[in-house]
Write a structure and sequence with these properties.
Length: about 350
């Protein structure tokens, strides 16, 4: 692994503490593009893809980009099953601090069954009674000593696939200890989030276009992306005038709002194996860039590279993503990046 060339000791942020989903899944390719019927039996085949959940994906990429001197601490639960044991082992092997990842007796690890049509569309079915559903505010408070340890020098990550209450507790700890507070919410959660006070405890919000539309009470279909984004930013800013917002739009790139204006970045032209997990890789690139001292618009460039590199793997975590692979991608896809991002990817030798 070749992390970014940064001096962690001189950086404002030196640790990430996060909650979110830790789990696995499998992919099944259906035969035929017709939408699966309610009582239909359909043949197909399993696809050799490894699936991971949001907290694991984001934490892995942050660790891969920033290296071992940046302390990456996931807080979550897996089941007392073989999948949970494998995930905890894999996280530790990749350098994540699994002190607060508990194997919970009597629970199953979060699991998704993803089905894919030949045209690339599809959906998934995810367990709602997994160990992740038992990550509650009390469990999150177990990590309070880490917030004290990194007070004023940490980034808190509140990712989906655990309850809003658990994420709210993490953001509260982060507020009390001077952390940068980064969060993401699903489209289903957005109406409740907007009605609540959660956004007042978020410094950096990273979502996709559909989630932005849900926050603004709009539909993506038939609405221009710029209209959706402007409406969403107005909604978020009304709750928290200081909030910074990142909105991904798949192959159409991304838009970041820093409180003063919006910066649009195109996506790189890359070979795509799977887009699953690309938004999480993008979010990790944003976090890594900010931890490295980049302003939001430059962190957005690093995030674009991370998202582009992630889709070149069939798995939701591209284990080959590092400084060297990002540098190669930048050269091959002609993604326009600033000198400060280039310097992070230089070989220190």
């Amino acid at each position: 692994m070749n992390p970014l060339t940064i001096d962690i000791g001189s950086c404002r942020y030196q640790a990430l503490i996060g909650v979110g989903g830790i789990g696995s899944g499998m992919f099944f390719r259906l035969n035929g593009d017709a939408t699966l019927g309610r009582e239909e039996s359909r043949s197909g085949c399993f696809i050799d893809r490894k699936d991971y959940c949001k907290l694991h994906i984001i934490a892995h990429y942050v660790r891969a980009l920033l290296g071992p001197d940046f302390h990456t601490i996931p807080v979550g639960r897996v089941g007392d099953d073989d999948i949970g044991a494998r995930l905890v082992h894999e996280m530790a092997e990749d350098g994540l601090d699994t002190t607060y990842v508990e194997r919970t007796q009597g629970s199953q690890t979060l699991f998704s069954f993803c089905f894919i049509y030949p045209d690339g569309g599809g959906g998934n079915m995810t367990t709602c009674d997994s160990a992740c559903s038992r990550v509650d505010p009390e469990y999150v408070r177990r990590s309070a000593a880490e917030f004290e340890r990194y007070a004023g020098r940490g980034i808190a990550l509140a990712a989906p696939e655990v309850s809003l209450e658990a994420r709210g507790e993490l953001l509260g700890l982060a507020t009390r200890h001077g952390f940068l507070r980064a969060a993401s919410f699903t489209s289903e959660e957005m109406p409740r989030v907007v009605r609540s006070s959660l956004l007042e405890s978020v410094d950096l919000l990273a979502i996709n276009l559909d989630e932005a539309a849900a926050a603004a009470g709009l539909r993506v279909e038939g609405t221009e992306a710029q209209t959706v984004i402007e409406a969403a930013v107005r909604t978020f800013s009304a709750k928290n005038p200081a909030i910074q917002v990142s909105i991904t739009m798949g192959k159409n790139g991304s838009c970041c709002w820093d409180g003063n204006g919006a910066v649009w970045k195109p996506a790189g032209k890359v070979r795509v194996e799977s887009t699953a997990g690309a938004g999480d890789a993008f979010f990790a690139g944003l976090i890594a860039g900010i931890a490295a001292g980049l302003p939001l618009h430059a962190a957005q460039e690093l995030a674009t590279l991370a998202g582009g590199d992630s889709v070149q793997s069939p798995h939701t975590i591209n284990k080959n993503l590092d400084r060297i692979s990002l540098r190669r991608l930048c050269a091959q896809s002609h993604i326009d990046i600033s000198p400060e991002v280039h310097s992070l990817m230089e070989d220190p030798r």
